[in-house]
Amino acid sequence: MLTDVMKRLIRENTIALVATVTPEGAPAVSPKATVAILDDSHLAFCDLRSPNTTRNIRVNPAVELNFIDVFRRQACRITGTASYASKSEAWFDDLRIHFKSWDYLSDRMRGIVVIEITRAEHILSPAYDVGAKEEELKADWLAKYTDIIN
Ligand SMILES: Cc1cc2nc3c(=O)[nH]c(=O)nc-3n(C[C@H](O)[C@H](O)[C@H](O)COP(=O)(O)O)c2cc1C
Question: Ligand 1 pocket check: which of 18, 43, 47, 50 to mutate, most ligand atoms within 8 Å of Cβ?
Answer without folding.
Answer: 50
